[in-house]
Design a protein that fits this description.
Two copies of one chain form a homodimer. The first copy, chain A, has 17 helices and 18 strands. Chain A is globular, with a radius of gyration of 23 Å. Chains A, B: Keywords: FAD, Flavoprotein, Oxidoreductase.
Chain lengths: ~500, ~500
Amino acid sequence: MNILYDERLDGPLPEVNKAELLKALQHAVPDLDILWREDELKPYECDGLSAYRTTPMLVALPRRLDQVQTLLKLCHQHSVPVVARGAGTGLSGGALPLEKGLLLVMARFNNILHIDPAARTARVQPGVRNLAISQAAAPFGLYYAPDPSSQIACSIGGNVAENAGGVHCLKYGLTVHNLLKIEVLSIEGERLTLGSDALDAPGFDLLALFTGSEGLLGIITEVTVKLLPKPQVAKVLLASFDSVEKAGRAVADIIAAGIIPGGLEMMDNLAIRAAEDFIHAGYPVDAEAILLCELDGVEADVHDDCLRVREVMLQAGASEVRQARDEAERVRFWAGRKNAFPAIGRLSPDYYCMDGTIPRRELPGVLQGIARLGAEYGLRVANVFHAGDGNMHPLILFDANQPGELHRAEALGGKILELCVQVGGSITGEHGVGREKINQMCAQFNSAELTLFHAVKTAFDPRGLLNPGKNIPTLHRCAEFGAMHIHAGQLPFPDLERF
Amino acid sequence: MNILYDERLDGPLPEVNKAELLKALQHAVPDLDILWREDELKPYECDGLSAYRTTPMLVALPRRLDQVQTLLKLCHQHSVPVVARGAGTGLSGGALPLEKGLLLVMARFNNILHIDPAARTARVQPGVRNLAISQAAAPFGLYYAPDPSSQIACSIGGNVAENAGGVHCLKYGLTVHNLLKIEVLSIEGERLTLGSDALDAPGFDLLALFTGSEGLLGIITEVTVKLLPKPQVAKVLLASFDSVEKAGRAVADIIAAGIIPGGLEMMDNLAIRAAEDFIHAGYPVDAEAILLCELDGVEADVHDDCLRVREVMLQAGASEVRQARDEAERVRFWAGRKNAFPAIGRLSPDYYCMDGTIPRRELPGVLQGIARLGAEYGLRVANVFHAGDGNMHPLILFDANQPGELHRAEALGGKILELCVQVGGSITGEHGVGREKINQMCAQFNSAELTLFHAVKTAFDPRGLLNPGKNIPTLHRCAEFGAMHIHAGQLPFPDLERF
């Protein structure tokens, strides 16, 4: 499939001559691996969001910092756009290459530089895989908490660029909460240290600004993350509900009871059935919704919390609450959840995964709104999400071979995100804006806010060479897209009633 | 006392005519309270750091957003510098007014707008006192975690501007970790929303960027904070050590054991004696160092943790570990710590409080380094600090009436902060840079990093009207100050050996 995207709305890009750039690069960095043949470039034409595909002009695969530095200086000098890429597992087209730009693959920077068990930190290169950090820290009883579904493959540099999340974010925070320091290169090849090894760094918090900036501000060359001690025990409860609203209420009640689960996930009936068919996790296929609630910590504490959560779930209307009897069943319960996306992929030729975030109290209403919008657009929507922090992943099922369905799916997705914004939420929780949600940014922010984003971008990258066309829309795009800023509670869209 | 400061190093400020500005303001905002007589202006000449004093040209005390908006537009139009101020309790001269500028006092914006117990958030105006938020949330069993010593008086707007900390930061994070959303006005009077009510906001993380920006980027007009459930129980242990090094080791061991105390504070002998004389907290006056360790959470958990921490402390060499027998003793133990600054104020006509942060493992070495520097400069230094997160508050005792002592104290303070930077730490943990530490920023950052700070500043405030001369030094200042960037491990200062 190929979702329509009009890149003329992002303003003109500099004209770059491929042969000249190749020659200049080979001259400036003789030992740099560069891909330039069509068949070599093909594998880099998209990231985890396959809806958009563009063949890059050139792909550079550096191994050393000085190579990256020289490459950036050259690109800056010749006004060549640069898109950085880690493992390419992102889901919003953030690492999508440009036809007239260089794709800078940082995957070969894959060394763990130092694990400091006393300080509980790991200093690693940006191409190190998320899971590899936890594996390296395991002998010290430590781990790295943020765990996106792609953690076996995704790299920490990409995690920082996208401010990646995961099942454990509710308790342990997003990537930004688990970072101490990064080393970056500016587009001019200048080395900068953002953050520090200590509690806090003075001056502006450029570490947080950089986290989630999606490659628009600089190139990450080193990352120092915080490590956490592995919890003694982890238990998981599976609760069944005969309505999505009751499950939503249980989520709010658990949090209100002062319990912070390690993970708190919801799936609706369509998702439950798909996962059960695929994984045989032992899910109740007749339930309208299930909640998976993991509690971790020290033994006595977890035991008490399990009892309290069970009580809260039953009071909120759960028809059944089961605790995984052993580690094998716990892993099976999670396997169903973690494979929900591919499971739903078996139901439909194509699906489109959204990533809206809403205040928890709005869950029941927004789920009703999604169901209504789905019916209106004639498309099925499965819901799988990080319920505890209000991060929803509605999956729109469609068939790109049916005329018009792709467009309908895209339009429905946009409406769902706008609904999230209306109730005070946002258009992304953990997948980033990338190219995918760039139009919805016009709904999220007003023109003063967008102007400020551009001013910040200009502070780092005055010529706009780093990952153009992603994350921050041009004001021109927003004007063309026609969507104005939605203030929560207002209704600029006549077809969307407030529920 | 009056620490020397050469404001010419911050570049020229616009010339403003007081009478004309007063007239223009009275015309533009007829119902705005403005102070302009010398005796009215006097109370605003400094913040909590009384070392610097400047009489502001005018003080504005708005009550409504539209007044602030109009005022800012006018100041922007006429290039009038604006310094925002909350309660004025800051300790780094961040709210120090300008002779040729307007002091914008936000203290009258002191309404709690909404407490949402289900979402566990409070939406408040910037002049609301830190403690007042917890008091308003108490009926719901909730509280606001960051608790600077000044929490009874300091306002949340100032907390955001300085990214304030407190005893509980180790476990619950700094201000930035406890914020959801802020409303701000740009210097042009434009309303901006940074952050969102949901987990995460897309685009650049301007909320984090703004937090701790010390009034250089805009005026905070509304703050939405996260609330936490009050822990069921809190217990405190008091451990005595015959050397500061052993206490430092105990801190590292507690953290390494995977325990995260609610608070973990250290005091050295000079601080212990001063506090005991003043408060009669029951401290062991012969100990070289004490640790106060608070454990909070559910009953069973806290009980277990107390046993484990006691064991770790004894193994690290504690000569005695006492648990507060009851709530009254717990409060007394903390009262000694919380009054340590005024207690030390009784020992000496003047003291100068530093706020360096270092990696925890460097504690013993840095304490030795401070002792050596103190001897070298012939001044006593007491140490009181948030040991758990490596945030030190060395208090330099001196007498401003003795010729040269003020200068020696200031020079010693600078050396101590440079020592923090050398071991990979930073020149501030929670007090901010303000005017006080602006020279040390030249040691913390290289010129590429400082240039980037200026570029970010320009993105928000192109004319440099917001709080000029604070937080971010000019490159000219750094060149004049003569201190170049210290990379950890390097030694640009020949008189400072690496210990």
